[in-house]
């Protein structure tokens, strides 16, 4: 087994073993803007809030994301929280 790994390593282009380590990135921003867009938009524009928040500020987060002025992580965090509260029938 070790011999086959060594052989594979030797076949790599010269620059590959010297590259800096890179993390694995999931395309959350793309998903929020495409595949999840309808669900997330409905959540942020719902008239039935479950979490403790100012509805205008909550909606503004989604609007800012659509305009490229809000990071995807804030949108996803609030969306997941809202979904969790709804699934567990919790109103704060």
Write the layout of secondary structure elements.
Blueprint: H1 2-10, H2 28-33, H3 37-44, H4 55-66, H5 72-87
Mean pLDDT over all positions: 84
Count of separate DSSP helical elements: 5
Number of strands: 0
* Rg measurement, Å: 21 Å
As for the number of domains, it is 1
Order of helices and strands: HHHHH
Give a quick account of the main beta sheet: strands, pairing sense, barrel closure.
none
- The proportion of residues forming helix, as a percent range, comes to 55-70%
SS-based class: mainly alpha
Could you list the spans in which at least 5 consecutive residues all have pLDDT below 50?
Answer: none
**Spatial gap, N to C terminus:** 57 Å
Q: Which range does the strand content fall in?
A: under 5%
From the spread of the alpha carbons, the general shape counts as elongated
